[in-house]
Design brief:
The protein has one helix spanning 75-82; strands spanning 14-19, 25-32, 36-42, 45-52, 60-66, 70-71, 94-105, 108-117, 120-135, 141-152, 174-185. It is mainly beta. It has one domain (14-185): Lipid/polyisoprenoid-binding, YceI-like (Lipocalin), CATH 2.40.128.
Amino acid sequence: MSDATVPATANTGVTTWNIDPAHTTVEFSVKHLMISTVRGHFGAVTGTILLDEQNPLNSSVKAEIDVTSINTRQEQRDAHLRSADFFDVEKFPAIRFESTSIERDGDHFDVYGNLTIRDVTRAVVLHTSDEGRGGDPWGGERAGFSATTKVDRRDFGLTWNQALETGGVVVGNDIKITLEVEAIKAA
């Protein structure tokens, strides 16, 4: 995906919103040693939201995460996560998401789509909330969205682990993902 701004679609009720990497957070959490939770985030995310103002169910999302931007606040662990044991950033430097459909769930929306990690693509559901809109000091319009999902890392080929003498494993399989997205309306 290009960092270039995508123009808004004219006269269709569809507006284009570009994800603001400086104000967007992609966080994850996973069990460590089966007794605590380790949290981390990716610092570089780009993407585009095509928002159908009349019918939000016709909207779509594409996003890309630079995997090299992973940060768990421990450089040795981050280096291991970038290695072939996990993300293998030399071969697969990006995580990608592309929506396939959207459904209303009360006041929230479920965004269905394809998540690609390494060379594996799986269907996931992002449980999302529209956090509102507002103007910024530079004359632009911003929108906020939050989302959560959970994936099994093994489904994406992230299978490295180590058994513990006391039973269990070093790294849990369920990964909880939380997104806080701020997007800027394209001119």
